[in-house]
Amino acid sequence: MPHGVDRTQEGSGAQEIDGAQEISGAQEVEATAISRAAPDVIFKHLCVAEAWGEWGGFWTRARRESAGEEHPNGIGAVRYVPMRREEVVAWDPPRHYGYTALASYTALAACIMLAGPLTRRFRADVTLEPHHDGTLIRWRGAFHGFPGTGSFTRAMLRRRFGAYARRVARHSEHCEPGCPARLPGAL
Q1: What residue spans carry the region label Disordered (predicted)?
Q2: E strand map for the chain
């Protein structure tokens, strides 16, 4: 698949809205942050799995399990993040990066992580927009929760996405040599 595409499985009930996928009937959350870093710098920190541990903290020490279809970090790439696996489903450098969970979170993971609540059909989309002398980071997620968990899940994901957006914004502004996002081939 070429750059700038979004893979949606047939019959998934998803549709594209403003460059991101919406899961039919899903609950949604959103968080934003502003960074002085350029969109391409932030995008590299999102698409290189190993870079997540540089800015996201312990629970984001990710590694790529398999390469994408046309680019190692692009659509189809699978990364392992502690207690879950995620697949890249949207890749449009440096504007849009989307991923979906390949397996539902477990109750133990939700309790330990305090922010990976019980979900079915989870998807997140990160869009990067030029903003004055920097970038507006918009982290949106859609999910189907299990009965009785919707409010908790929304609150935890909003908190997590806000932390991710702020952390990647801050780290991208002051990225040190040796960060995996600075390696050749990220884009």
Answers
A1: 1-20
A2: 5-6, 14-17, 20-23, 27-35, 63-66, 78-81, 84-92, 96-101, 119-131, 134-145
The CA-atom distances, in angstroms, between 166 and each of 62, 103, 118, 161 are 18, 26, 24, 9
Question: Per residue of the chain (187 residues), what is the pLDDT tens digit?
Answer: 344 555 544 344 444 434 444 455 678 999 999 999 999 999 999 999 999 989 987 666 788 999 999 999 999 999 988 778 899 999 999 999 999 988 655 444 554 444 444 666 789 999 999 999 999 999 999 888 777 777 888 888 899 899 999 999 999 999 998 899 998 877 7
Closest alpha carbon to 94 in 38, 138, 133, 134: 38
Query: How many Å apart are CA 44 and CA 156, to the nearest integer?
Result: 25
As given in the structure block, the two tokens for residue 138 are: 């918009």
Whose structure tokens read 């449009």?
Answer: 92
Q: Which two tokens stand for residue 4?
A: 């700038």
Per-residue tokens: 37: 């870093």
DSSP 114: S
Architecture of domain 25-182: 2-Layer Sandwich (3.30)
